[in-house]
TrEMBL record:
It comes from Kribbella pratensis. It comes from the Bacteria. This is DUF559 domain-containing protein.
Amino acid sequence: MQPLREKGIDALIHDQGQIVSRAQLLAAGWSEPRIRRPLRNRRWRAVHPGVYVTHTGPIGYGERLLAALLYAGPEAAWSHYTAAEQLGLIKPDPERRVYVTIPEHRKVLPRAGLVVHRDEHWAARLAAVAPPRRTPTEAVLDIVGIAPSLDEAAAVIAEACQSGRVGAEDILGSLAHRPRLRHRSSLRPIIADVVAGSHSLLEIRYARDVERRHGLPRGHRQRSVDHEFTDVHYTGFSLNVELDGRLHLVPQQRWRDLDRDNRATLRTEATLRYGWFDVTNRACDAAVQVLQVLRRTNPFLDPTPCSPSCPITAFRNISAS
């Protein structure tokens, strides 16, 4: 109402990216016939019931975001992936559905391309910005709560923390107020890995599936050396592990990796390089290779097999004898 009184409906429509709601038009004194006229003439279109776009061109992603808020009502706020995108925590995806959250006592019918959630703690989880959205920690935990897998939950946590706009400790603090959150019991070690320096899902999976499950020493994450960062460095063992889930089809990236490996060799450091398939499908084999290099410095390292068939068992027997 304040923008309407100060600037009028035309300025409000402009500020809202050419999106306006029926409730706003009525508040500005428009009659029902006046609202129907541009719709009948096809100069306006309905994005959702009672929410209109006031031009004839394509409806952009930003317009869809604001239309979702206006459709869901005055107490709606962006949440989940939408809030995380708008807060700069994750990369935007225009193909993704719009997520909004409303108070528990309200009901809004779902629409195509729009997901509506209800939350009894709605007010306590809002950021002090406009348009309304969840706080960074709550947006991350919203996504975790609907993530189909623990891997997807871990990937979102890692990406959000790497953005520098939310801290792992903050997420951990908010986790205490979500006792029924999906994947909750498995999140603490993931967040601990992020605190330790893991920047991606692949790094989290390496720490869990290669290191911890096989009793290997914990490497130092993101060591800075020669103006670059090493994914995992085993201090005192002269071993680096580089993790990359991409296929390097770009020559410049390939040569940068080779140059980094060569400089490590000049420092008399060995480098093992693993991709997504290695860590997710051959974690035991990777653990064996890492152990073999670590034993060059400490022959008495005793690993822990992750299963009776784990190939690292043979190396444990050799150590024991």
